[in-house]
């Protein structure tokens, strides 16, 4: 299924471009698929308040995210393109006290459908305003251990919870819906290759928190959310005419 979708995104723009009537040539047409690295800056300060004493804070300056995106100008509505995107990234903090290794991993990921309008009064490159409508997850993973693990010992600990354990692991998850306003500039360096630079702000509507295997988690502060400003770049292959 994914291979078929990729084929459609890559090659359908060319077929549409060939079949469009002359009246559409005064508007952008084509489309493509590409890699879209980004820098997300979520508000992690509320999480930092719960870190153990002496543990370095999660960076408030953001983290690298990688993703993939694709779009196509639909032709029958001038300057409108639709597509999809997905992304994921994480940041961590570590601490070692005597023999205990601690780590907190904060990760953010999601994807959705994109709708963008390319401004018609700008030629030779595309300036597009739009939105992403989709869903995603925020995860906070807590680790604590003091040594390398042994396969048999791991299963022994799992089988007998009364045994003392020097290992700790907890996964905290929050799923959300998102609406993300975006502004992207696409510059074709060749008819079949285009570069992108853009910004956006992810607005989220979250569900209840869960821990580990989807067990309910209560008492989470309301200011811990997945809202985030981001800067993205990208390189696309396909067919582009602005």
Present the secondary structure layout.
Layout: H1 2-19, E1 29-35, E2 38-42, H2 45-48, E3 63-73, E4 80-97, E5 100-118, E6 126-145, H3 151-159, E7 168-190, E8 193-211, E9 215-216, E10 228-241
Antiparallel strand pairs: 1-3, 1-10, 2-3, 2-10, 3-4, 4-5, 5-6, 6-7, 7-8, 8-9, 8-10
What does this structure look like?
The chain is mainly beta. It has three helices and ten strands. Strands 1, 2, 3, 4, 5, 6, 7, 8, 9 and 10 form a ten-stranded antiparallel sheet that branches. A hairpin with a 3-residue loop joins strand 8 and strand 9.
Unreliable stretches, pLDDT < 50, 5 or more residues? 1-24
| Count of beta strands | 10
Taken as a percent bin, the fraction of beta residues is over 45%
Radius of gyration of CA atoms, rounded to a whole number:
23 Å
The computed structural class is: mainly beta
Overall 3D form: elongated
CATH hierarchy class name of one domain? Mainly Beta
Instruction: Quote the average pLDDT.
Output: 88
Q: Could you please say which CATH topology of one domain applies here?
A: Porin
Q: Would you list the SSEs in sequence order as H and E?
A: HEEHEEEEHEEEE
CATH architecture of one domain: Beta Barrel
| Contiguous helical run count | 3
Report on the biggest sheet.
10 strands, antiparallel
Secondary structure: helix percent? 10-25%
- End-to-end span in angstroms? 31 Å
Concise description?
The chain is mostly beta strands.
Descriptors for this entry?
ten-stranded antiparallel β-sheet, disordered N terminus, 10 strands, 242 residues, mainly beta, single chain, Porin, 3 helices
């Amino acid at each position: 299924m994914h291979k078929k979708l990729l084929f459609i995104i890559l090659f359908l723009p060319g077929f549409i471009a060939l079949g469009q009537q002359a009246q559409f040539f005064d508007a952008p047409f084509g489309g493509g698929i590409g890699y879209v690295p980004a820098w997300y800056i979520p508000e992690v300060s509320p999480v930092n308040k719960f870190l153990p004493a002496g543990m370095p804070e999660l960076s408030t300056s953001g983290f690298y995210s990688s993703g993939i995106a694709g779009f196509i100008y639909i032709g029958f509505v001038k300057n409108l393109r639709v597509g999809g995107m997905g992304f994921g990234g994480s940041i961590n903090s570590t601490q070692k006290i005597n023999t205990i290794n601690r780590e907190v991993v904060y990760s953010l990921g999601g994807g959705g459908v994109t709708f963008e309008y390319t401004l018609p009064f700008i030629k030779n490159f595309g300036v597009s305003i739009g939105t992403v409508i989709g869903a995603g997850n925020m995860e906070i993973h807590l680790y604590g251990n003091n040594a390398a693990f042994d396969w048999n010992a791991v299963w022994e600990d799992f089988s007998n919870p009364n045994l003392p354990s020097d290992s700790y692991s907890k996964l905290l998850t929050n799923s959300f819906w998102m609406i993300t306003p975006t502004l992207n500039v696409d510059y074709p360096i060749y008819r079949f290759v285009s570069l992108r630079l853009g910004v956006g702000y992810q607005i989220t509507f979250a569900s209840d928190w869960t821990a580990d295997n989807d067990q309910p988690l209560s008492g989470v502060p309301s200011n811990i959310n997945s809202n985030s400003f981001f800067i993205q770049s990208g390189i696309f292959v396909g067919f582009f005419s602005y």
